[in-house]
Amino acid sequence: MIGNALELGEFELWCHPHVAAHDGSIASVQAEVRWRRQDGRLAAPGAIARAFPTATMQELFVLHMVCDALAALRMWSAEGFELNIVLALPVPQARLEAPGTRGLVAGLLAQAGLAPARLVLRGSVDGACCEVADLLDWLRVRGAGCAQAAGEFIATPQPVHVLPAALRRWQASYAVMSAADAFS
């Protein structure tokens, strides 16, 4: 099941940009994996974690998603965005920290010419309370008392290939909001 999905390209990286509220800069990007089945529907988040028949298949999945993340980093660099990725994968943290996995990931980073700090692997995490669609939404969330909204907010997820355009929209939105604040 997972092997077929890997071959068919059914796994997609979706990115949550972390935006600094004080200046609109993109602090980092958290990427998560979504499984778009052949019928076009998204699988439930836990479906990926339950689908691994063997530890070898789990490691293959991790390496496949790491390669996708490295391709995204290179694409974003070509677009003028030097971002770091925290890649949340639906596998146990112990698998990600295993010496064999760490060695393979380090080799892939070196082969891609990227510093190790550009890609951090983590087991999947729950969505943050401060996920917002735009700066006005962030102001609403902050007004509602979200503890994390004071310094950084998390933009709604974007498919990896459209992230540069989304980041340009964030920067333009921030510039407009900053200009409006200057006249207030």
Tell me briefly what this model is.
The protein has 184 residues and is α/β, with parallel strands linked by helices.
Helix content: 40-55%
Question: What is the CA-based Rg, rounded?
Answer: 18 Å
Overall number of domains: 1
Query: What's the pLDDT, averaged over the residues?
Result: 78
Named CATH topology: TIM Barrel
End-to-end gap: 57 Å
By helix and strand content, what is the structural category? alpha/beta
CATH architecture: Alpha-Beta Barrel
Query: Which range does the strand content fall in?
Result: 15-25%
How many alpha or pi helices? 7
For the biggest sheet, the summary is: 7 strands, mixed
Organism: Pseudoduganella guangdongensis
Domain EAL: 1-184
Protein name: EAL domain-containing protein
Would you spell out the secondary-structure blueprint of this structure?
Layout: H1 2-8, E1 11-20, E2 26-35, H2 45-50, H3 55-78, E3 85-89, H4 93-97, H5 99-112, E4 119-123, E5 131-132, H6 135-143, E6 152-155, E7 158-159, H7 163-182
Parallel strand pairs: 2-3, 3-4, 5-6
Antiparallel strand pairs: 1-2, 1-6, 1-7
Helix pairs in contact: 3-5
How would you describe what is shown here?
By secondary structure, the chain is of the alpha/beta class. It has a single domain (2-182), classed as TIM Barrel, CATH 3.20.20. 46% of the residues lie in helices and 21% in strands. The protein is built from seven helices and seven strands. The protein has helices at 2-8, 45-50, 55-78, 93-97, 99-112, 135-143, 163-182, and strands at 11-20, 26-35, 85-89, 119-123, 131-132, 152-155, 158-159. Strands 1, 2, 3, 4, 5, 6 and 7 form a seven-stranded mixed β-sheet that branches. Helix 3 packs parallel to helix 5 (99-112). It is globular. The protein starts with a helix and ends with a helix. Residues 126-130 have low confidence and may be disordered. Pfam families: EAL. This is EAL domain-containing protein. Residues 1-184 form the EAL domain. It comes from Pseudoduganella guangdongensis. InterPro entries: EAL_dom (IPR001633), EAL_sf (IPR035919).
